[in-house]
Design a protein that fits this description.
529 residues; elongated; 4-stranded antiparallel beta sheet; 5-stranded antiparallel beta sheet; 11 helices
Length: 529
């Protein structure tokens, strides 16, 4: 009778475990299905809704000066209203931010513009059919038919020179109070414009004369306006982007000497009708944006990389007086923005683990007697907590490897192979090191540091010490147990009498309480057991 009663009890227990495993599987996979269905529905119906929980992307367009103050031109992109069905594009807003000393001052939203420049204590923002000026305090807007599309301009003592395109071709206009005079363009420029509708023209004011620069093919051209006559166009090789600025003494041509990750900036100086240079500037890494301007008679350089941006004063071959600012993808800001999402996801995970752990504790047998000794199986929550502690410990070596990437992030584009090698090594260190960490410590001592702090240990299924072979095998199967965020492991724990995941079944191991090592759980006053 006792044997029959024991067999009936085992059958009932197996049936309970089977039903429990089915219930856990249905709940887990149902939750996953519901999450992904809702996510897909939101992505189809309101894709911008997901971006409401993220900060606006802020990108610096460039920097300029009115001769005294430095300003940053900033774009902020709002993706929250994006809707492909309604053809709603991202909303872009523009801001003007003054640099106060070494810190960014207040920002003010400004209307969209096509080109901006500064000189003589004034900023000028050009649009088709109008221009706006800002003297640091007041704004003024002037509407005029003398400005066409794609305007480029410069404010000079003689007035505002604007080069823009019309249906009849490009025009250079000198705009002043109550007047707009047409300035003839060089024949070489008009020919280049007919061949190429984007000659990338730049204007500069040098010693009372207007200078016009433009590109054509692989060459850079320039001419100087003397009264109403242009000088013959001179030429030089054109390797990439360029900027032109001038002060009272010199005309500066700053340009990219190469394209790609090895690109650099050099500048040439025009003095007494003679060019000198190039002077190579010590700019490291690939630039996402750059600009030059003069301020208080000094040549200033603005550089932007992926994670940072800076303002420098150019002195011969050196960049001095750096003012370092955060870039559009600053790692610290990105980590701060991701922290609530990661924290919320972890909190949901903890709640799910607590719920499943309570469910298993309610319906499963939690103790076992073997050879007269009693053992208590480790709960799901204790095993989760121990794994979390171990993973945090394993992240430390990988973080030490990854940290140089953040301190020298801009060198990635200079040496991408080094970056890939470090990422590969850090990833391998986490996974292979984690496997060896768990396998060796569990095989030799029956527990990792996380398990020790949580008061649990690994034994063989007959409750003898684990051993290396079992330690290696149970952790090798962790890859399968981890499917669906360890839901496969939870289902196996629910289905087996001895709370075994697939790795435990293959290695014939169990995880039990070690009541003398309850450090973490007792200190947290957890009553999940």
């Amino acid at each position: 009778m006792n044997a029959d009663a024991g067999q009936t009890e085992n059958t009932e227990e197996q049936k309970t475990n089977r039903n429990l495993a089915i219930g856990v599987g249905v709940l887990g996979f149902g939750a996953f299905a519901l999450f992904y269905i809702l996510f897909l529905a939101v992505m189809i119906a309101r894709p911008g809704l997901l971006f409401k929980f993220m900060p606006e992307l802020s990108i610096t367009d460039g920097a300029l000066s009115d001769g005294g103050k430095t300003y940053l031109l900033v774009q902020k992109v709002d993706m929250s209203n994006v809707d492909p069905r309604e053809k709603n594009p991202p909303e872009t807003r523009r801001f003007l931010t003054v640099l106060e000393g070494t810190e960014l001052g207040p920002s003010r939203e400004i209307p969209a513009y096509e080109h901006a420049s500064g000189a003589n204590g004034m900023l000028v923002f050009l649009n088709k059919g109008s221009y706006r000026t800002f003297d640091g305090v007041r704004w003024a807007e002037v509407r005029t038919d003398s400005i066409g599309t794609d305007p480029r301009g410069i404010l000079t003592p003689a007035g505002l020179y604007v080069l823009s395109s019309f249906e009849t071709g490009p025009r250079l206009m000198l705009i002043g109070p109550g007047r707009a005079d047409n300035v003839p363009l060089p024949h070489e420029y008009l020919a280049a414009d007919r061949r190429n509708r984007c000659p990338c023209a730049k204007l500069a004011w040098y010693q009372g004369r207007l200078c016009l620069f433009w590109t054509g093919g692989d060459s850079l051209y320039w001419a100087i306006l003397h009264g109403s006559t242009w000088s013959s166009a001179a030429t030089s090789p054109y390797p990439g982007g360029y900027e032109v600025v001038a002060d009272d003494r010199n005309l500066y041509l700053v340009r990219r000497e190469q394209k790609g990750p090895d690109s650099g900036l050099s500048y040439y100086i025009f003095t007494n009708d003679t060019w000198s240079g190039p002077v190579r500037l010590p700019v490291q890494g690939a630039l996402t944006n750059w600009a030059v301007f003069t301020q208080h008679g000094k040549l200033r350089l603005f550089t932007q990389h992926i994670t940072n941006q800076a303002l420098h004063t150019i002195e011969k071959e050196s960049l001095v007086d750096p003012i370092r600012l955060k870039g559009p993808f600053d790692p610290a800001d990105m980590a701060g923005n991701m922290a609530p999402i990661i924290g919320g996801s972890f909190a949901l995970t903890v709640l799910a683990v607590l719920g499943f752990s309570a469910l298993l504790n309610r319906f499963k047998r939690r103790t076992w007697t073997e050879h007269g000794a009693g053992y208590a199986f480790a709960s799901l929550f204790r095993r989760f907590l121990a794994t979390t502690i171990d993973n945090l410990l394993l992240l430390v070596p990988s973080a030490i490897v990854i940290f140089p990437l953040y301190s020298e992030f801009e060198s990635i584009t200079v040496n991408p192979l080094r970056f890939l090698c470090l990422i590969f090594f850090a990833t391998a260190l986490f996974f292979i090191g984690g496997f060896l960490y768990h396998a060796l410590l569990e095989g030799l001592f029956g527990r990792t540091l996380g398990k020790k702090l949580c008061g649990i240990r690994v034994l063989k299924a007959d409750f003898t010490p684990c051993g290396l072979s079992a330690g290696f095998l149970r952790n090798l199967l962790r890859i399968v147990d981890a499917f669906f965020y360890y839901l496969v492991a939870v289902i196996a724990l629910a289905a087996t009498t001895k709370w075994q995941r697939l790795g435990d079944l293959a290695a014939e191991t169990v995880v039990v309480r070690d009541t003398k090592q309850d450090t973490v759980v007792k200190s947290l006053s957890l009553t999940q057991e």
